[in-house]
Design goal:
The protein is about 40% helix and about 15% strand. With about 400 residues, the chain is α/β, with parallel strands linked by helices. It has one domain: Rossmann fold. Strands 1, 2, 3, 4, 5, 6, 7, 10 and 11 form a nine-stranded mixed sheet that branches. A two-stranded antiparallel ribbon has the order 8-9. It is globular, with a radius of gyration of 32 Å.
Length: about 400
C-alpha cells in the first residue's frame, strides 16, 4: 500500500513538472514563432498561413479589380508602364526597294524628361529638358559578318543606359533577316558573292530611315549619328559613312552628312573586294586636306587582328597625329580625332564588343562619343528631316 502511494505521488509530481516545462516552452517559443512569421511575410510577401476572420472572409468591396476603365493606375503599375516604355523592342524593317525583312532590336532613349518634367518652379517648364530627345545621339551597331545581332545586344543596352538610342540589325542572310517578300527560299549569307555582300549597305541605310522617323518624332537627333561595326563589317560601316557624306541638301533640306563618329572593333584588312588601305585614301578617313570623321579603333593586342590594326593605325596617323606626349586626357580629347584602345587580350572583335567583361572598353567608347560628338551638339541642332515631311511642315506654316 505504501509503495502504491509513493508511486502515485511520483506520478503526480512528474505530471506537474511536465506541465510546467510545456508552459515555459510555450512562453519562450511563442515570440520566436511570431518573429519567424514576420520574416516569412517580409521575404515572400503575404503570409498565407494567416488565420482569423479577415483571412477567411475577404471584404467584397476590396476585392474589386486593381484597375477599372478610366481609373488611374496605381503607382507600382505606372512604374512598370514607364519601365516597359524603355524596354528593348524587337522590330521588323523592310529594306526599301528590295523587300528584305530586316530583323532588328531597338533600344529607345531613357529620357530624363520622363523622370523630371519640370524645374524647381512648378509653374515654369524646365527649358533645358523641354524636348530632351532632340539632343539624343543615336547609334547603329553592325555585327561581324557570319555572326548576328545577339553579339551586340549587351553593348546596345549599355549605350542606352548612358543616355543614347541604339538600333541593332541582323544583316541580310544573318540571324532572323532571312525573308524576302515574294521569294520562296530564305537568304543565306554563306552563298553571297562580293556584290551581294556589299549590298548589305542597304540594311544600314534602312536603319537610318528608321532613326530619321524617330528624329521627326523628336526622340533622337539624327545629326548626332554614330556607327559601330565589328570585324569584316567595318568595311560596310566606313563605306556607308562615306556615302552618307556625299548627300547634298535638296531645296535647302539636309539629306546626309549625319554620321559624326565611327567606332571599329578589330577591323579586318580586306572584305568583299574592299581593303582598309584603299578606304584610308578618302580624305574623310585619312584627314588629308580636310577635317576627318572622329574614329576609334579597338582591338585585342594578342589577337589575330593585332598586326593588321597596328599597321593600319600607322597609316591613319600620317594625317591624324596624336597630341604631344604629356598632354592630359582633356587636351587629347580636344586636339585628336583618332583614338585607339589596344586591349591586353586575345579576344576577337565580337567578343570585345559583346562581352560584359569588356565594359572598360565600352566606357571608353562612350567617353569618345561624349567628347567628340555630344559635346558639340549645339553645332548640330535638331531639325525636321525628309523632303516630304519638311515640305508638308512648310505648307502648314504658310
Amino acid at each position: 500500500m505504501i509503495n502504491i502511494f509513493i508511486a502515485n505521488t511520483h506520478f503526480r509530481v512528474g505530471l506537474r513538472l511536465a506541465c510546467m516545462i510545456l508552459l515555459i516552452s510555450f512562453i519562450v517559443l511563442a515570440p520566436a514563432s511570431s518573429v519567424e512569421a514576420q520574416r516569412r511575410k517580409s521575404a515572400f510577401g503575404d503570409d498565407k498561413s494567416k488565420t482569423g476572420d479577415k483571412a477567411k472572409t475577404p471584404n467584397k468591396k476590396s476585392a474589386k479589380p486593381s484597375t477599372q476603365p478610366g481609373a488611374r493606375p496605381r503607382p507600382d503599375q505606372r512604374k512598370n508602364k514607364e519601365a516597359d516604355k524603355f524596354a528593348p523592342q524587337n522590330i521588323s524593317l523592310t529594306v526599301k526597294g528590295e523587300g528584305i525583312q530586316l530583323a532588328a532590336t531597338w533600344f529607345p532613349p531613357i529620357l530624363e524628361d520622363d523622370k523630371k518634367k519640370r524645374s524647381a518652379n512648378k509653374n515654369e517648364p524646365n527649358k533645358e529638358d523641354a524636348e530632351p530627345g532632340k539632343s539624343i545621339a543615336p547609334f547603329i551597331l553592325v555585327h561581324d559578318w557570319s555572326r548576328s545581332r545577339t553579339d551586340l545586344l549587351m553593348l546596345g543596352k549599355y549605350l542606352q543606359s548612358q543616355g543614347h538610342a541604339v538600333i541593332v540589325p541582323d544583316l541580310r542572310g544573318h540571324g532572323q533577316s532571312l525573308v524576302v517578300t515574294g521569294a520562296t527560299k530564305p537568304l543565306d549569307h554563306t552563298k553571297f558573292k562580293k556584290a551581294e555582300k556589299a549590298s548589305a549597305l542597304g540594311d544600314i541605310d534602312q536603319c537610318k530611315r528608321f532613326l530619321q522617323e524617330k528624329n521627326n518624332e523628336g526622340i533622337v537627333n539624327i545629326d548626332l549619328l554614330n556607327i559601330v561595326a565589328v570585324g569584316d563589317s567595318s568595311h560596310l560601316a566606313i563605306a556607308w559613312a562615306l556615302a552618307d557624306w556625299t548627300w547634298e541638301p535638296v531645296a535647302g533640306i539636309k539629306q546626309g552628312k549625319d554620321v559624326k563618329s565611327i567606332i571599329l572593333f578589330s577591323p579586318t584588312g580586306k572584305f568583299a573586294g574592299s581593303s582598309l588601305r584603299k578606304l584610308v585614301k578618302d580624305p574623310m578617313i585619312s584627314g588629308r586636306s580636310t577635317t576627318p570623321l572622329p574614329m576609334l579603333v579597338i582591338w585585342g593586342g594578342q589577337s589575330e587582328a593585332a598586326e593588321g590594326c597596328d599597321s593600319w593605325l600607322k597609316l591613319l596617323r600620317k594625317f591624324r597625329p596624336e597630341a604631344p606626349e604629356g598632354e592630359d586626357l582633356a587636351s587629347r580629347w580636344f586636339k585628336q580625332n583618332l583614338f585607339h584602345f589596344q586591349a591586353p587580350t586575345g579576344m576577337k572583335g565580337y567578343e570585345l564588343a559583346g562581352n560584359p567583361s569588356a565594359q572598360q572598353i565600352w566606357a571608353f567608347a562612350n567617353d569618345f562619343v561624349s567628347q567628340k560628338v555630344v559635346a558639340y551638339k549645339d553645332q548640330f541642332p535638331w531639325q525636321l528631316r525628309g523632303t516630304k515631311e519638311v515640305l508638308k511642315a512648310r505648307e502648314q506654316e504658310e
